[in-house]
Design a protein that fits this description.
The structure holds two protein chains of two kinds. Helix content of chain A is 74%, strand content 0%. Chain A has five helices and no strands. The chains are: A mainly alpha, B mainly alpha. Chains A and B meet through helix 1, helix 2, helix 3, helix 4 and helix 5 of A and helix 9, helix 10, helix 18, helix 19 and helix 20 of B.
């Protein structure tokens, strides 16, 4: 089965999960009004099922999935999440240079001048602009 | 609707030094991001929206429109210099711009693209200013039933035209509608899809979702592309002939018919939701080439090729605001983000905008015309600078862009919760991109979802279980029939070209640095 068929099937399954599990659990029933709280998201879920089936039966479109890249993308997101956690505990001035530095090094940047610009100059400029000039507090 | 006091006050608001500075800043930022392959104006607008929160609504929207206008000019620079469009809509510019650069005429090509952009953009702005208010008057006569039908039609057209799979586009639309349902439901005020997070009472924050799906996903895609580090300097051939470095009045005037036709194509395409600037540029290029007396010279450095594409893709910008300002329906991602900015500033887009916020709208029109003039001046001064920017390392630009996204969303949402949502939707957006689900369809459905639900509830109250009432709404019936025909024609009948661009309108779609 081609990837596009799998995507259609996955869309339908996600729609089913929304329709029968998530939406009933995460919405209330009320006895009045034109539209029940769960009706509108249920329409969305039903459309996901319907067009997911259509995609499974008649797959169309292109994909650019490449598993090594997807893993690297997950790692990039993980680095950003780690930076968020660091930002909460250590503050912007510590975490921001670490984030930029980690991302630049991760994609293979090794030139000291560009690394310095990314790690020191840019976070410092942002911090000065928001904390000092605009007086908008950063973490 | 045509209150002269509003028009005068709006224009007076627009032409202030304060506003002028922000429009210059927006245009310069737009040209900068347009010149960087991989960054694009919609992405820059998404990132910039949170930073405009502290500004007056007119200044904020003028700034964002400036970014959009500057972006279309900047996108041509790397297309000409390194045969890599800075934004998708500049792809057609490379066809003749790059051969011109190879002949030592890079400055001439960049200047022609600048002049053609401004010509096309000004044309479409004039059309916008002329037709928007009359369309809004008609739109005001529409009730909830017609609005629901109109939104269904917009979704059908957008999913049919954007991307290469209508089924996947509709799945993305449906998912956008589900995401728009998060929070207190508009009719009863009960909690829905919140998973216990009270921060979600007002729904998923638009800035977080928009920046996540549009900007973070593209940043991640560029960061993992393996092409960013150690970018070598690009050498562009030059000549000593001064004529190769400028566009003479005779050359500009010889392109007037090309630019006028391109401006018309861009305006028509821009006024229709979903088609976008890339299609307009290629349509205009193809038409100009086919009607030329010397079609063989196209693709080999014909200045008419550059004029045709740039006038068309820039004309889309103004025309895109026609459905946005008159009907409240965004035609593409840029318009969707501008809707988001309006909502953040407490302004509801749609036909009532002309009635209730006439001063703001005419101020915006004034700012748009000002942005066109400033685009010319900033472009004249900045072309050489942006040419250097086009060769800056992506490792720096995209890493700092990620930091900007985090900073912007933190400031808008007031905490890390919004940033977490941004990263979640960044990951979702990345996988939607690589699996070919339309980001444009998702974000437009998300933006319109709440209004759609509200209009649907109002329409059901009007119908009150008796569907024969629909006979009294012939416009709505016609729109629904048109929607079904769109789904049939665009989804089943339209032949798909192998290798067709999967994401016209999507920021920096598949353009390698």
């Amino acid at each position: 089965m081609s990837l596009n068929r799998w995507l259609g099937a996955a869309s339908s399954l996600a729609g089913l999960a929304f329709l029968f599990i998530v939406i009933p659990m995460q919405s209330e029933t009320v006895g009045y009004g034109a539209l029940q709280p769960r009706t509108f998201p249920s329409i969305g879920a039903a459309l996901m099922i319907l067009f997911g089936i259509a995609q499974t039966l008649r797959p169309t479109g292109e994909t650019e999935f490449d598993s090594p890249r997807a893993i690297r993308a997950a790692a990039t997101i993980a680095v950003s999440v780690a930076a968020l956690i660091a930002m909460e505990f250590a503050g912007y001035l510590v975490a921001a240079p670490l984030l930029v530095g980690a991302l630049m090094m991760y994609v293979g940047e090794r030139r000291p001048g560009w690394l310095a610009a990314g790690i020191v100059l840019c976070p410092a400029l942002l911090w000065v602009m928001f904390e000092i000039l605009l007086r908008r507090p950063l973490p | 609707m045509f209150n002269t006091a509003d028009i005068a006050a709006g224009l007076a608001d627009a032409f202030t030094l304060y506003n002028l500075m922000f429009v210059i800043g927006g245009v310069a930022l737009g040209q900068f991001v347009g010149a960087v392959p991989g960054l694009s104006a919609p992405m820059a607008i998404a990132i910039a929206v949170p930073f405009t929160f502290v500004l007056h609504p007119l200044t904020a929207i003028s700034f964002l429109v400036g970014v959009g206008k500057g972006g279309t000019v900047g996108g041509a620079i790397p297309a000409v210099l390194i045969n890599t469009p800075g934004s998708p809509e500049a792809a057609a510019t490379a066809l003749d711009g790059y051969p011109m650069a190879q002949k030592g005429q890079s400055l001439k090509a960049m200047k022609m693209s600048l002049y053609a952009s401004i010509t096309g953009d000004t044309m479409s702005d004039i059309v916008l200013i002329t037709v928007a208010a009359p369309i809004a008057i008609v739109a005001l006569k529409m009730g909830p039933v017609e609005i629901v039908a109109l939104m269904v039609l917009a979704f059908a057209i957008i999913t049919g035209l954007v991307g290469d799979s209508m089924a996947k586009g509709l799945v993305a639309t449906a998912f956008g509608l589900i995401c728009a349902s998060v929070g207190l439901d508009p009719e009863h005020g009960t909690s829905r899809l919140q998973f216990g997070f009270f921060d979600l009472d007002e729904g998923l924050p638009l800035a977080a979702v928009g920046i996540g799906v549009l900007a973070v996903s593209e940043i991640v895609r560029q960061l993992v592309s393996g092409r960013l580090a150690g970018g070598a300097a690009v050498s562009v051939p030059t000549t000593d002939n001064p004529a190769d470095k400028a566009v003479s009045w005779a050359e500009y005037w010889s392109c007037r018919h090309t630019m006028f036709r391109a401006g018309a194509i861009g305006t028509i395409v821009g006024a229709m939701p979903g088609i976008g600037a890339t299609a307009a540029a290629f349509l205009s290029y193809g038409y100009t080439k086919n009607t030329s007396k010397d079609p063989d010279s196209f693709g080999k450095g014909n200045i008419h090729g550059v004029a045709a594409t740039e006038a068309a893709n820039s004309a889309v910008m103004g025309a895109n605001l026609i459905p946005l300002l008159t009907l409240g329906i965004p035609g593409n991602v840029t318009a969707a983000m501008i809707i988001g900015a309006l909502v953040i500033h407490g302004i509801q887009p749609g036909p009532l905008l002309f009635k209730e916020q006439g001063r703001l709208i005419y101020g915006l029109f004034g700012a748009m015309m000002m942005a066109n003039v400033l685009n010319l001046f900033v472009g004249q001064v900045g072309l050489r600078l942006w040419a250097i920017v086009a060769t800056a390392p992506g490792s720096l630009i995209f890493s700092v862009s990620m930091l900007l996204c985090i900073t912007g969303v933190y400031l808008t949402t007031g905490g890390m919760f919004g940033v977490s949502i941004m990263l979640l939707f960044g990951a979702l957006g990345y996988f939607m991109r690589i699996f070919g689900f339309s980001i444009v369809a998702f974000i437009i459905a998300f933006v319109l979802g709440r209004q759609f639900e509200l209009s649907l509830a109002q329409a059901l109250i009007i119908i009150n279980g008796d569907y024969r009432v629909l006979i009294h709404h012939p416009v709505a019936i016609a729109l629904i029939v048109l929607s079904v025909l769109c789904v049939y024609w665009l989804g089943f009948r339209r032949p798909r070209q192998p290798g067709q661009t999967p994401a016209d309108n999507q920021p920096a779609a598949a353009k390698s640095p």
